[in-house]
Amino acid sequence: MIELTVNGTVRQVEVEADTPLLWVLREQLGLTGTKYGCGIAQCGACTVLVDGQATRSCSLPVEAAVGQPIVTIEAIEAHPVGAKVVEAWVAAQAPQCGYCQSGQVMAATALLATTPKPTPDEIREAMTNICRCGTYNAIAEAITLAGASL
Amino acid sequence: MSGGLAAALRGAMPPGRPVNLSRRGIFAAAGAGLFLGLAIPLRAPRAQGSQGAALRHAGKVAAYLRIMPDGTVQLQNPFVEGGQGIDSAIAQIVAEELDADPAAFSVTCAPPGEDYRVMQGGNGRFTGGSFSVRSSFAHFRTLGATARAMLVAAAAERLAVPAESLTTAAGRVIQPGGRELTYGELAAAAALLAPPANPPLRDPAAFRVIGQPIPRLGVRERSTGKVTYAIDVTVEGMLLAAVMHAPRAGAGPAAVTNEDALRALPGVHSVHRLPGAVAVVANSWWRARSAVTQAQVAWQALQGPVMEADFTAEAMLGRLKAAAGTQGNTAEEAGEVTPAFAAAARVIEAQYDAPYLAHAQMEPPSATARFNADGTLDVWVPNQAPDLFQASAARVAGIETDKVRLHSPPLGGFFGRHFAYGSGNAHPQAILLAKATGRPVKVIWSREEEFARDAYRPLTFATFRAGLDAAGQIVAFQAAGYGEGPITRHFGSGGLGNPPIDGSIMEGLTGKPYRFATKRIEFVPVPHPPGVNLGFWRSVGHSMNDFFFESFLDEVAGAVGQDPFALRLALVSHSERHQALLRGVAELAGGWRSGPFDAPDGTRRARGVAMASPFGTEVATIAEVSVSDGEVVVHDLWVAIDPGRAVNPRTIAEQVQSAAAIGLSSALSEEIRFEGGEVATRNYDTYRVLRRDRMPRVHVRVIESGAPMGGIGEPGTPGVPPAVANAIFALNGQRLRSMPFGRTRLSGA
Questions:
Q1: Cα(B643)–Cα(B701) distance, rounded to whole angstroms?
Q2: CB B459 within 8 A of CB B250
Q3: Which SUPFAM superfamilies does the record cross-reference, listed alphabetically (chain B) (predicted)?
Q4: Does the pLDDT at position B40 exceed 70?
């Protein structure tokens, strides 16, 4: 039995200790807002916050997340920075297909939590998630917008 | 997906009777068994231009609209939303004529069925070819107007006044100086009325919703992880399946030699041999995936040929190059090109090529299948053509088509990925596994399996010749495209017309706006191996051909010392529309700049220009580049796009951003590589798609010329690679004739 703290709630799961956190969230806990994209920490669709850090959950064994608060997209609007990020995402109309956007929003939340007014270079360095719809410019606009409200 | 596909459908299907293609013929042509064309009843394909036929479903209000008591409008969309904004665009069109708030709409993808075949004269339905809005604009205007008339009639009855005395505004029927009734209050009564024929349509000059940059629907859900994509579908009691395809396509599993060991792994339910793959079914996908990667499989040939062990993309390009100079089938011709070349003072020649491309949409393929006690089957699968997938699912399951409920969830990107591509689809596996286990099964392809079994944009090759007179004028122009496109692969060569022309290989070499004194454009068929599945990739033939053509045109300009922008203006002197487009893009870019210049940030830069005419829309693109560490840096893209008329200019600008990004991605770094007959690029680490660090600014100008409506989703793509290539040439004199450019080290700072 593995005990996790997800979105403020303690959850117990029965999985192999090396199961990636992503699949525990999606399959054991039913939190399908976090997406599978590549499985090798390339695309960032699976990004969640682990102890406040943007983390690619497809490549994090669940045992490594034990004892650390995990925040997923399902709780993003309860996160003080995340709520602003979502509003900015909506205002900038950032998503197209939307599949990568959970991860993008989580990565942006982690960035703005430490750097509320990121420069374009800082956005470029922090936001390495892939968007096949090419919404990169709208995302940058949304991050700047969210930063202005922090 | 292309205009070529629609042409193929028209050409392939005999008019006036149901489609009766020989199944054997399709199998022979398509190798792995692809059913794309089989299920389309094209009763009156030539009636496409006929308003009456095109609108034959526009009175079926109940099939499309449900107005709830709170005023919410539930709309069944024949097209599937995958980021292109089609749910919003259709709502916007209906809202205009219905006189409702477009934000009050809730849109889902309609089930299969006759009522939703709004294309091809009311007989076809697919999401692709940038066809959705332009093919259904009249249908949805009429549908909205019909519903409005029914609501007005219901109000007239209730108020006991003539319908003509009533007006409407934003979801209400209004009696001037009197009462107001909401659509929600009237909906039940209105639904009992007969839909009127020929309801009056709003004067386009008075549109208040169409043409406005209103926000898309569902943006908040897409920003908070609330959309249920196919991969997220959960069915009670379902098992999860992971597959491992044969390393070389065309083989199938003879035996899984460690089946007992796999079955003993945690959570594993069963191990299965499928056509071309093995599957492990388990109580979680991760456990299924962990097990299937450990499978030891003896592979043997299926019925057809197995992918050659020495197959590579380079070898395929060699086959195409070996065909250079072969007399092809004439796709376009003007005047007598042979004597014109003989008389030319000078002839310029060049060869171009482009690689296999994957769609690389962010959502990996999946499918969920559930057999029900009543003999029906539910299937959830990402798809761009519900009727075809329903028929395909029924064939795999061995049941009647109407026993299949086909669900079409929103797509996590598609770009042409989700047509019926035979072995490229996951739903047959889900159905076979659900049958074998007696349980609902969801199959998910890992990213590696997806890259290995996608239907690729074909690797292609083209040759060009231009004959110039002593004054440097083009007097003869010849181009040829080589290979096999998805139309040949999936519809068979019998449907290519006479002479046979595969539009998915030729569009972009054909259909250019330039006038030459003489020209001949040819198609030279050369097959790809059956083990390489071929697909429609955003902007299809244009995705490579506009790069080829527009780059070669720059070569001609360079050879005669003419400015490439001025050359294009001269070549479209007969077309005000194209001149306006070129001037528009130059104006957007702050003026055309010829040759290299120093930018304020100290970089040495140059600009390139290209034109494209994809899917009924006209596009002109300017790129501004510099070179850093041997690689191109694209600073800005300016795109002028003329779709004739705009439904939502904001969505158009967003689609151009998106289309430009994928076009640049293909130009810079994308290519599927094979090693030993196996796909070697199987994840985003080796198949490099555009990331943020190389995304340029994209500036868009929408021009509404009033021409017949063109497409939006794809047209922004094909101008980008040639504009960038031409800018690189202007900067450092290096002419890139092969994509992706990242293979070539660039000179200059």
A1: 11
A2: no
A3: CO dehydrogenase molybdoprotein N-domain-like, Molybdenum cofactor-binding domain
A4: no
Indicate the pLDDT class of residue B299, thresholds 50, 70 and 90. Answer: very high
Find, among B697, B583, B590, B695, the residue nearest to B640 by Cα.
Answer: B583
| The CATH number of domain B230-304+365-444 is 3.30.365.10 | yes
DSSP class of B403: G
What's chain A's Rg over C-alpha atoms? 15
Contact A99 B364 (CB under 8 A): no
- Which strand (E) or helix (H) includes residue B299? strand B297-301
> ipTM score of the complex?
0.98
What is the H or E stretch that residue B141 is in? helix B132-159
R_g of chain B, CA atoms, integer Å? 27
Is residue B508 a contact partner of residue B465, using CB atoms and an 8 Å limit?
no
Nearest by CB: A102 against B225, B231, B284? B225
Tens digits of per-residue pLDDT, B546-589? 999 999 999 999 999 999 999 999 999 999 999 999 999 999 99
Q: Does B716 touch chain A (CB under 8 A)?
A: no
Considering the segment(s) A2-74 as one domain, its CATH architecture is: Roll (3.10)
Phi/psi of residue A30, each to 5°? 70, 20
The whole-angstrom distance between B624's CA and the closest CA on chain A is 17
Tokens of A147: 């930063």
Search chain B and give the residue with CA nearest A100: B362
B720-732 and B542-559 are packed helices; what angle lies between their axes, rounded to 10 degrees? 30
Which stretches does DSSP call E strand in B69-171?
Answer: 73-77, 105-109, 167-169
Which of B45-59, B136-150, B166-180, B478-492 is least confident?
A: B45-59
pLDDT of residue B220: 98
Q: Measured between CB atoms, does A21 come within 8 Å of chain B?
A: no
Predicted confidence (pLDDT) per residue in B492-517, tens digit: 988 899 999 999 999 999 999 999 99
pLDDT of residue B302: 82
Cross-chain residue pair A77–B683, CB shorter than 8 Å? no
Min Cα distance B493 → chain A (Å) is 32
Domain ranges of chain A: 2-74, 76-148
> Which fold is adopted by the domain A76-148?
DNA polymerase; domain 1 (1.10.150)
Distance of alpha carbon B494 from alpha carbon B598, whole angstroms: 55
Is the CATH number 3.40.50.2300 carried by domain B44-220?
no
CA neighbor of B211 nearest in space, from B81, B92, B74: B92
| CATH pick for B314-356+457-743 out of 3.40.120.10, 3.90.420.10, 3.40.50.1000, 3.30.365.10 | 3.30.365.10
State mean pLDDT over B253-267. 98
Mean pLDDT confidence for B200-214: 97
B162-195 confidence digits (pLDDT tens): 999 999 999 999 999 889 999 999 999 999 999 9
Q: What share of chain B has pLDDT > 90, as a percent?
A: 90
Using the Cβ of A14 and the Cβ atoms of chain B, whether some distance falls under 8 Å is answered with: no
H helix count then E strand count, chain A:
5, 5
For chain B, say whether A95 makes contact (Cβ under 8 Å): yes
**Residue showing tokens 């893209």:** B637
Interchain contact A100–B (C-beta under 8 A): yes
Asked if B285 and A23 come within 8 Å (Cβ–Cβ), the reply is yes
Predicted TM-score (pTM) of the model is: 0.94
